Structure formats: structure tokens, C-alpha cells
Amino acid sequence: MAERGESSEAVMLKKTEEEKLRKGKMIVGDESKAGYEEEGKKVKLVTSDGVTMEVEISIVKEMEIIQTFIGATDTDDSFIFPISNVSSHILNQIIELVKGEYDQELAKKLSHDELKEILVAANYLNMKTLFHFIATAIANVIQNKSVEFVRDFFGIVNDFTEEEEAELRKTNAWAFEGVDED
Amino acid sequence: MADMISSIPDDILLYILSFLPTKQVVATTVLSKRWNLLFRSVPSFDFSYRMDYDKNHIEDCYHFFHSVFSFLLSRDSNRSLHKFRLRCGSTFLMNTVGIKTSISTWIEEWIEYAVTGRNRVQHLDLNLDQKIVMPSMVFRCKTLVVLKLGYVTVKDISCVDLPLLKILHLNTVLFSEDVGLSLLLSGSPNVEDLEVKNINFDPSKVKFNRLPKLVRVRTLGHLFPLEIVQNVEDLIIYPLCPLKLGFDLENLVQLEINFVYRKEWLEVLEVLRHCPKLQNLVLGIFKSYRFELFQKNDEGAVLPGLQPIPQCISMYLKTCDFGIYEGSIDEIQFARYILQNAKYLRTMKIQICPESNVTDDKILYMIKELSSCMKSSNTCTLSIK
């Protein structure tokens, strides 16, 4: 995730454009034939819980960390890439999100733990679009929520004393006004 | 899980925080010691002023200024500020006679702060009041990727240099010169997404250059010349007067037409004739204060036999969304025309307009009518809600 500079909206714009181009090609061309030579090709990944999964190349291509190595092993389909930081459950969720074209409705069905695990996985696999998608989904969950909710969401242990916290709340009192305590 | 979050680097947390309103970002100072100073590095400024009618307006304004300054002064000034979003609304500058320092001067200063070079701001989103004049520096801020301006005045726009700008949204911006919009566009050669709403100028005094890179355009108002955006793929229009396209929109894939006064089906077909490759058509109503003026079509109106069939309908159209069904006969006729002639149609969605009092009988009649009509496409699904 080195380049997070580009404006997120512009990233999404680029993404939909690519999507459109891809679809456009499929429609103009003969639909019975696969538009890409690589279509249907799969890459083997072994997850942290030892499950070997065959993942479509179109999805693996979004994983920049692996993408770098695909070229080198192009001729050898039997190679299994270890992704030791991602469980099979989370990889399945990621595949669903990519296939569902990053629909916010899908994100709403994810638990808080899944959201956080996908975030960490997206960062590790260097999946830029997924990372942006899941970061905004998390922002939507915690938006306008109380301090207690955010602490609970991230599993943050409050290491302030009651007096310290009260003092901090006083310093920036404006930031705590009109927030629903939930 | 607590272990996992403690392993998340600060820059990821900062990225998530950058999507939140600044008020909430500042509230994260009390989460824990680790989070206490994090807010100072968040690369975003996002403040909205909402008028509180229970409070004294002047005190309320001061309170808002205090919040903004307290954030700006505690920021880590070595960190860039990628996003700057400020909304004040039209009530903000009302009844502020008692305030000594000019509010608009303060706001203009914040904007100048945002576009100073070291902040490297990419995303500037302002929705203010037409009393606020844009500092001319904004239009020379080379790092901008997204620029959204609503309800502001633009006076000095003699020099525009926005080479990275991709998204430009303008809503009710008052340009003091007729050529203002044209100058802004010619200094933004790489814009892909353009929104132009309620921008007035004298068309006889302005010449626009073509914008070949545009992909998506949304325009409200009749002055903006569509000729300059002939290459767009995605177009949203609100036709205020009869649309006469004397040219083809060769690349158009998606078209949304929002009727302003009445549903002009013949006009829609005329537009479709100029969109040879259109795949998705959305029909809606412009919901505004003028909604009560919206004219219902005659119950008895009949569309004449429409030949020839526009090429996009017979060869490319995949989806058609009616966001506006009100129960008139001409609507069914148009829907039937599409169903009968679109060979590759996959879905037709019809939404009953909630403001119209369409009876269940009418809905049943329509379902019967449309499901029994001959369809060119074998794979088309019809949904009526």
C-alpha cells in the first residue's frame, strides 16, 4: 500500500472505467468465445490454515504481492503460492467481494471481525481497490458512533485513567457534542 | 482480535480516519494513548456547519470557528492535507451583522491555507454561499485531482492550471465573467468526470473547446454545449428545453434522462437515434421544487408507429430502468416498444412513482400487458416494483 496518495474517488473512477472497457469488449466481440486467452486459468494459493485454493487469475491479478511473481512462473501452473497471513475463510470472503464488483451491500453482511481481517489481508496482499473499499466500509460502520463503540470495534484497551479521559474530553469539548451515546 | 488491531500500522488507521468527519476524528484522542496524537496526522479536513435554531446564531458561529481553528492549529504541519471539505450552507452568513471580523474573509483564508503547496491537497470540496469568493490560487493548485464547488463565486480565473484534475463538479457557481466556465475547462485538460449544474453565461460570448478525455458528464441547465463532450460513455441530462442533437454520441454506453416538465417520449427516441451504441437507459424525473409543475401526460396519448427503430435499441440495449411509472398509457406504450424491439435486452425495471396514486388495478393491468407483449429478447427479465 505504498501509493495511497491518489484520490480515492479517482481510483474508483478508474476502476469502473476498466470494468466498462472489459465488459464493452465482451459485448462487442463474440460472446460465445472467452474474451481473454487467460480466462478460466487458475492460480493455486495455500492459506494460513493450510487449505489449498484455486483462484481465478482475474482475482489474483488484483493481488499485487503475487502479481509480481506470476510472470516468472507463467509456464509452471503447479506452483502453489503461500499466503500465510490470510485464512481460507477470509480468502473466500475476498473472492466474493471481488466477484460482486465491490457492492457495499455485501460489506454490510460482514461481521466486525471479518471487516478488520479483510482490511489486514488487503493490505498484506496489496489489493488497492479492495483496501479502499473495505476502509470506507469500516469508516461507514464507525461514522458518528460514540467513543465507546469505536473502542469496542477496534478492540482498543483504554489506558487512560478516568481523570485523564475527562481532561481530554474537556480540551476538545466541541468534538463530543451532539454525538449519540450508543 | 485485540492483537490484530495493535498490529495494524498507523497509516492504515489514518486512512480509515480520513473518511470520517473531523469532529469524530478529534474525538478519537480519548480512545487510548496510542490514538491520542494520531488525529494530528490525519490527511483530511472535513467540517460541516449545521445551524442550530435553538442557539444564538452569532455564538454558534464563533463556536464553529473555534472548532475549526482548534483543529487547524493542532495539526502536524509537516503532514500533507489530501482532502479539504467544508460545508456551511446558506444560513451561515445570515444574521451575522454582529460579528466584527468578516466571516467570508476567514473562510477564504482557510481555503487559501488548504491550497498552499505544502499541503498537496488533492480533493477540494466546498459548499458555501455565493458571498464567498474563491481565492484565485485554487485554480493554480496543481495537485488537485477532485474539485467540487457549490454555491460560491468565482471572480479571478485568469490563470487556470489543473493538470491532474479528473473530477470537476460545479453546482450553482457564480462566474463573474461569461468565459469563466470555459477558462476553467480549458485549464483542466484531463477531466474525466464533469458535473455542471445551474451555471449561467451568455453562450454568444463564449467559445468552448472539445474535451476529449471526458468519460462521465452530468449536466443540469440548457446552456452547456453537449457538442464538446461527444466522446462520453456515461451521460446524465435534465432536458429543460427540447434536445436537438445534431451529432452522434459515438461512445455512449449509459444514458440517464431526467424529465423536468413532462415525459417527452418522441424526444427520447430522437436522442436515442444519436446514441448508436447505447447499452443502458435510465429514465427518471427531476425532483425539485418544480415537481408540482410536472405535467401528467394525457391518458389517451398514443405514440405513432415509430420507424425506423433506433440502432441502439435493436442492437445494443441491455437494460432499461423506468424510475418513474405513474400509470399513463404512453408509458406502457414506450415500455412495450422497447420490449418488442430490443433483441439483447436483459432486464427491464419499472418502479412505480410513490407520489402518483397508481391503483393496484393499474399495476395488474400493466403487468399483464407487458408480460403478454411480444418480446424480441428471450432472456429479458421484467421487474415491476
Automatic annotation (TrEMBL), chain A:
KW Thylakoid (keyword) present: no
Gene3D superfamilies noted in UniProt: Potassium Channel Kv1.1, Chain A
Domain of life: Eukaryota
Family from the record: Belongs to the SKP1 family.
Job description of the protein: Involved in ubiquitination and subsequent proteasomal degradation of target proteins. Together with CUL1, RBX1 and a F-box protein, it forms a SCF E3 ubiquitin ligase complex. The functional specificity of this complex depends on the type of F-box protein. In the SCF complex, it serves as an adapter that links the F-box protein to CUL1.
Subunit structure: Part of a SCF (SKP1-cullin-F-box) protein ligase complex.
PANTHER family: SKP1
Identification of the protein by name: SKP1-like protein
UniProtKB/TrEMBL annotation, chain B:
Pfam families xrefs: F-box, FBD, LRR_At5g56370
Gene3D superfamilies: 1.20.1280.50, Ribonuclease Inhibitor (3.80.10.10)
InterPro entries xref list: F-box-like_dom_sf, F-box_AtFBL13-like, F-box_dom, FBD, FBL13/AtMIF1-like, LRR_dom_sf, LRR_FXL15/At3g58940/PEG3-like
PROSITE patterns registered for this protein in UniProt: FBOX (PS50181)
Family annotation (SMART domains): FBD, FBOX
Annotated ranges, domain F-box: 2-52
Protein's UniProt name: F-box domain-containing protein
Organism (species): Vigna unguiculata
